[in-house]
Amino acid sequence: MSSELAMSTKARAMFGSRLQANEYETLIQKKSVPEVASYLKNETYFSKTLDGINEKAIHREQLESLLRMDIFHRLEKLERYGGENDRGFIYAFVMRSEIRMILACVRYIVTNDEEIRSGIISDLPMFAQKYFSFDIKRLPEVTSFSELLDVLKGTAYERIIFKYQSERLEEIDYIALEHDLELELYKDTIQLLDLTKKNEVNVALDQLIMSKAELINLSAIYRLKKYFKESSLTIEKFMLPYTCFFKKHELDDMIENCDADEVLERVAKKYHRYTHDLRFTSIEQYVQMIQFNMGHHMFEYYQDSHVVFLSYLLLAETEIQNLINIIEGIRYQIAPDRIRALLVY
Amino acid sequence: MAIVKMKYVSVATDESHIDEMVLDGVHSGLLHAVHAADIINEDNGGHLINDENPYSGYLQTLQNFAHSVNYTLDPERAPKKHYTNEEMDAFIDELDETFGLETDANTVLLTPDDEQALGALSECGFERMHACQYLNFGFGRLPRESYKKLSMYKDEIFVHHHVHETPQYVWMLYVTSDSYVDKVRKIFKDLYFEPIDIPMIDVKKQLEHYKDQIDDIYAFCNEENSVHELYPYIAEINEKYLLSGFVKADEVDHYKAIFKDLPSTIEVKDPSEVPDLECPTLLKNNWFAKPFEMFLGMYGVPKYTDFDPTGFMAFTYCLLFGIMFGDLGQGLVLFILGLVFEKKGQIFGIINRCGITSMIFGFLFGSVFGYEELLNPIHQSLFGVREKLFDVMAQSSTMLLLIGAVAIGAVLILTTQCMNIVNRFKHHQLGDAIFSQNGIAGLVFYGGIVFAIVATMLLGWNVLNPVYLGIFIVLPVISFVMKEPLSNAVEHKTVKPEEGWGGYIAQSIFELIDVLLTFVTNSMSYLRVGGFVLSHAGMMLVVMTLVEMTGKAGVAVLIFGNIFVMVLEGLIVGIQTLRLEYYEMFSRYYDAGGVQFNALSAKVAE
Fold this sequence. Notes:
By secondary structure, chain A is mostly helical.
């Protein structure tokens, strides 16, 4: 109990120093990435993360990478206040990077494009090296599936990659591979939490995790119906086998019988608690807003360290995504109004 | 013991007078400026000034130049003349050409670490590097994270040499041949390498000629830059440029007069007319309470519309401290110490005030530096007592002390409840004022219990009849349980609680247990006041016993013993009293959450 209180207090203190509306407003008025870097370094709580950077010369990607790294350090900080189990969440968080790196590696094996290899090296999150389930430094050396399997030996990924290795590289179903790896991430997180006991905290945790999968599904259904007019059979292939507020048959019914607007209507109804006063601009932003509102609600109302940890992660990721949107927006000279519309806070 | 009245003042001028307006506003030292982002909104169509600050670029360029040639710029100098951008550009071009450097701040920012790294690199000889025909050199900083990845490029043809490092970067030189230069550059670019040009020649001899002009332009840019840094406070609305903020009400005329020579319009509003902007709080207290603003600030200043509790806090703090640290001699030392160092910090002011009450209670307890009988003759002549007015160490005094401490606590709790009720009514929070544990219901409940105890134990009255119990116990308890619906009713909102009746009642019953326990624990919390009186006397008894035991060294033991007790007890009692203030009193009647008034000053701008 004491560590739970300590962690939720620490998390709340950290959340309290988040960027405020006026700071976002100031940031979107900036004209260049160095100006953004300078503001973040000198005026916000990112000063520690960006301490020592040369804001005039920093690469945009380097700035984004530092901001992403910041989430990781914040989680490590929180983990020190939490229990042993919370460390597992860091592993789960790192799994996303592992999957991203494995997919990039598969792309390199298939295309043999040196640019991809170079990208793998520059993207390697060395700061999280100790949490990786395999030796990431060996990834850039991989040129074939057998080498990749050798690197991934003993991990959960080995079985998945083994299933997809093929002599005929052009036949590899990349989307299905991505889907399977993503499934592994959810399985791992669910296993970590052990939600078999149905109490209030577990329901909240279940909602936090499953709603993410469900919203990914809903967003995919909306996009595939709206922009690609895909058949229900194709849509089914993209679905993660998890639901949260919707029942499985409701999701099937939506895939079968609804158009994109009706999908949106049902989402708004089901998630009414978190869609109040939401304006729809794009499906990506809409689901991000729902997740943010849900995370915020959980963060405010629960003391449990798992809930606090997961909801804080969600909120922190949203903040970093906002900053990345601002940086990209300014880099590509998008009007402040359009950048503002992308922000979630 | 009040909050200084404020006015919202907005000065508007045209584009050509922004700098004068900003300078006048800042140099006045009267304005708590409001950030322009808080003023602009979709309704007024305003926006922030997007004017780029060219002077920070020029400043950086000159600093780059100074770093490159190891020249120390004069930061104190006042500029002799005004320079146009064209003049400064021409001068910088001339410098770059003469010295063979690339100093443009838009592309280069040389920091002291860069300079250090360049210094280390210079041992290799810049000229020799530039003279190489088939080798290519790259120098710059690489993020530390990327530096770890260099070993992954096993097959690439380059060598690198580490020159300098900080926690974020590694400064390094790489060397490759002409054939591989593009590939190697691409690798380093992918790793976010930030290149720094390797200087061509040593040019220090040229400096004497340009020295004066460099310093003058630097001083000019410094001055202009400080103005531009205040642009975030300027909002542009309908082609007018507004510097807005809060000024003390009695200084508004003085503030307005500052802009009399400026073509401007000044709008003055009451803070209530700008509800979206948070009016800052400036406390105004008398000599006695002033230092306690420090403790209040640590908890949080009151909102502008709230009341200032500093006076009450000062009184209760000194009272409780004085009781717990009652010693005439030690109090006198605290008083003198506080008086001498008062200008060094507010904490000494607090020590000074606490010294006064320590002396008063020390006199009443008859204690001087641990000598418990020294004041007996005075007590006997003044109060007509046999020995002394109140003997802390007497066995009969212990219970009286502890009961007295709880009684003081009860009075303070009742007082803070009354203050809370007045405050809530002032803010039209009728529900909290009437039905909460710190409202009328709480006052009736706690007051009823205190009165019942006093009447039964001291006066021998039996007041615990059904009517009394109904009015002072049952009614308030119902009020605690039904606080939300009752509050909703008096505030004309939907009576039904948000979570439904079942959930609400269940939750309220648990909360009721918490409320009742809080009353008990809060009252018991004041026991520490009596406890520390005994502890202080006990510690001094130990000191005096040691004095007697040590014979001739007794004086030294007396002095060190007193110092030890003063430091230890003073610290503990100070912290415990602060705890009582924050947890037992503030939690009942005080919501902080205000913003401290902080006038912009020329110093801040710089």
